[in-house]
Amino acid sequence: YSSPRPRRTWNGSGGSVGPSCPLADTWKGREDLLHTRVARDVRESLRSLAFETSIDTSRYVVVGVGATASIAVEAADLDSRVAALVLISPRPEPLTQGPMRARIRRIGRPIFFQVGPEDFEYADVTDALYQAGNRSASRVAEAKLNGHGPAQFHGEPAVAARLTRWLSETLTSGRPK
């Protein structure tokens, strides 16, 4: 006998969950649909931001971490305003790796790949993604200290400095004069 999985509840935390906002563990069998839906949400969020504020949304950067790296690439494919991508510890599902490489090749946007020692098992995947894209404008950067995902930015200031420098150079070079 196994007890049913406890239901998650969100009381006043802003994490509303319902049919229009499913939890990731309820995606089974609907991954492609929800993957695309989340990617479209990036574009729609920026449209809303532009409508509500005076922030320039004519160009922006999308960040994907781990399994969400493929969603970030799809978001860039759907919106030409995405000037660059930052993929931290990319770990796309095996079935999304081919479409992800094809999108990277098609969009040709600069990509900053941040990987750490714990990402070694995905080194071939990261290399294939890098090879598919705009190699002259993209970078693969490795953290020296242990850490996966955003944890790579803790305790090693050079990691954030390298990303900041790349973003500054990439976004400045692509701007019309």
Protein model, in words:
This protein is α/β, with parallel strands linked by helices. It is 41% helix and 12% strand. Strands 1-2-3-4 form a four-stranded parallel sheet, with helices on both faces. Helix 3 packs parallel to helix 4. It is globular and about 40 Å long.
What would you say about this model in short?
By secondary structure, this protein is of the alpha/beta class. The chain has five helices and four strands, in the order αβαβαβαβα.
* Stretches with pLDDT under 50, minimum 5 residues: 1-17
Number of helices: 5
What structural category characterises the helix and strand content? alpha/beta
- Beta percentage is 5-15%
Q: What series of H and E elements makes up the topology?
A: HEHEHEHEH
- Helix-residue proportion: 40-55%
Spatial strand sequence of the major β-sheet: 1-2-3-4
Strand elements, count: 4
Largest sheet: 4 strands, parallel
Shape: globular
Mean pLDDT: 84
What radius of gyration results from the CA coordinates?
A: 18 Å
